[in-house]
Amino acid sequence: MQRTRLNSLVAVTGDRLELLFSNPWRRISLSIISLLLGFFMGSAIVTTAGQNAVWDITAAALLFIAAELINLLVYRRRQKKETPQRRRSLYLDALNLFKIGLTYNLFLEAFKLGS
């Protein structure tokens, strides 16, 4: 890829965010925010799709595909040159916790409908 100003700006911004959230407390707070945001989005998607009974199957299929793509990104095999002590990327952790919050809310909504 060419080294343009936009590519440089995106790379520098990503590095600065990684440095900002290298503090464990900040990383934990971002993780909790991602989890709760996923929980909230799950509730919003279910209630919005549930108002019209037409979108239930489509919303479920889209959420399933999104969860599987996130799983593919997060849990794929690492390169051999990577050391086992190295932490995952901040973005992958936040995305994975968003998916966990979304899935947890979908289970809770299913239990509410089942009772």
pLDDT under 50 segments (min length 5)? Answer: none
Number of helices: 4
- Tell me the total number of β-strands: 0
**Which H/E pattern describes the elements?**
HHHH
Biggest sheet overview: none
What class, by secondary structure content? mainly alpha
End-to-end Cα distance, whole Å, is 54 Å
Tell me the fraction of residues in β-strands, as a range: under 5%
The radius of gyration over CA amounts to 18 Å
What do the pLDDT scores average to? 86
Overall shape: elongated
Helix content: over 70%
Features:
mainly alpha, 115 residues, 77% helix, elongated
Question: Would you mind describing this structure in some detail?
Answer:
This protein has helices at residues 5-20, 24-51, 56-75, 90-114. α2 crosses α4 and α3 packs antiparallel against α4. The protein is elongated. By secondary structure, it is an all-alpha fold. It starts with a helix and ends with a helix. It has four helices and no strands.
Provide the fold topology:
Elements: H1 5-20, H2 24-51, H3 56-75, H4 90-114
